[in-house]
Amino acid sequence: MSNCGRRVESWVDLYDLPTILKDKPVFETLDTLPADAILGLIAEHRNDPRDNKIDLGVGVYRTSAGETPVLDVVKVAEQRLLDQQTSKAYIGTAGDPEFNAAMQRLTFANPALDERLMTMQAPGGSGSLRVAAGLLLRANPDATVWVSEPTWANHHPLLGGAGLNLKPYPYYDTASHTIRLDAMLGALSGAARGDVVLLHACCHNPSGLDPSEEQWRAIADVIVERGLVPFIDMAYQGFAEDIDRDAFVIRHLADRVPEMLVCNSCSKNFGLYRDRVGTVSVLAEDTSRRDVVHSQASNVVRTMYSVPPDHGAAVVSIILSDASLRANWLIELAEMRDRLKSMRSLLNDALESKAPGADFSHLVRASGMFCFLGVSKEQVAKLKTDYGVYMVDSSRINVAGITEANVEYLAESIAAVL
Ligand code: LMR
Predict the structure, then answer these.
(1) Is the preceding omega at residue 150 within 30 degrees of 0, hence cis?
(2) Which of 184, 241, 268, 340 sits between 20 and 30 A of 235, alpha carbons compared?
(3) Which stretches of 60-159 are assigned E, i.e. beta strand?
């Protein structure tokens, strides 16, 4: 047996770590990676001393005062949890059954599907995507997972890094700021039976452009005809229209396909970003298949992080099971959604006056937190260095960073780099 170029006679030798490390430090083989394309902007913006800097980077909601507050309903539910929780013992690999049932209803709204559905608590949207990836790798390691071009910057490292084979399908036309529906349908028509299609349920990240219901039906037709497996990422339920309309594609497909996966995040719609709350749901052909999937998913979880974190999920469970808290949550969610919509119009109007002749109307055609500004990488860099305006290299902006107080400066800065 050899270790770092040195002969190791027995496993006992492996405990002789200082000598082995002296021979060759194990981490010497690693190189520093560049900062994450999205999360790296948090520190860059924080370290910028300019008073007029603007953060349009990472996808967190902000009020007109630039804050990301804890929702009022979350504060009430947390207090209740604090008063009533009697144990911090493990909750099991699948998480809390009540939370899972409530999330399943919020997502599918169809009790008739319960016998074919399983839903499992996961550590945020990313955690749920990782569990889904683990499950897909066990079920069909050779499947291609088709992802929109472009897609969330972390989809490729997260799903590809897990071992899935990803292929892009056309989605966004950067020149006209529209969805390339025909090209998308053409690419999916060429997919092999059993391939997986990753779709964004609403508020497409990064473009903010979602198919209309008619377009979703056409996409579903191809999925059904080709025998593809829908894999739906829903990180922004309630941020486009409302919680029901935002789940349209999930509910439509659930009526038409034998199998599908859905990953939910409660980071944005409950403002629970750092508490890591999400679910992974699988619709199976029948109850016995569903139970097999459940046992496999439990094992994926056990071998990755054992059990999910509980605090945030317990908070969501309290909110969803209490009629008055749930109603107040929907009001707070609508307030966030409405503010995002009005900031889109505000920036578009400001740009119309500061940059006459340039068309930014796609800002108001998109929904949710994001859209592309539609400027080059060089212009993005100039906005950062010369004006303290931060956004992802692709020119994706988080419209929650726009306020009545900064919109004039923002529009002037953008006009200056055009
Ligand atoms: C984003 O896209 O900015 C958010 O989903 C945060 C993240 O983790 O990337």
Answers:
(1) yes
(2) 184
(3) 117-122, 144-149
Which CATH code fits 37-69+336-417? 3.90.1150.10
- Residue 369 CB less than 6 A away from ligand 1: no
Give the model's pLDDT for residue 3: 45
pLDDT given for residue 22 in this prediction: 62
Delimit the domains of the chain by residue range.
Answer: 1-31, 37-69+336-417, 92-321
In the block, residue with structure tokens 């789940």: 247
268 classed as catalytic: yes
pLDDT at 248: 98
pLDDT for position 11: 54
Give the domain 92-321 fold.
Aspartate Aminotransferase; domain 2 (3.40.640)
Query: What are the distances in angstroms from CA 148 to CA 172, 177, 257, 357?
Result: 8, 15, 20, 31
| Closest listed residue to residue 134, CA positions, set 106, 161, 104 | 161
Q: What pLDDT score does 2 carry? A: 42
Low-confidence stretches of the chain (pLDDT < 50) are 1-5
What's the pTM? 0.93
Catalytic residue among 96, 233, 275, 310: 233
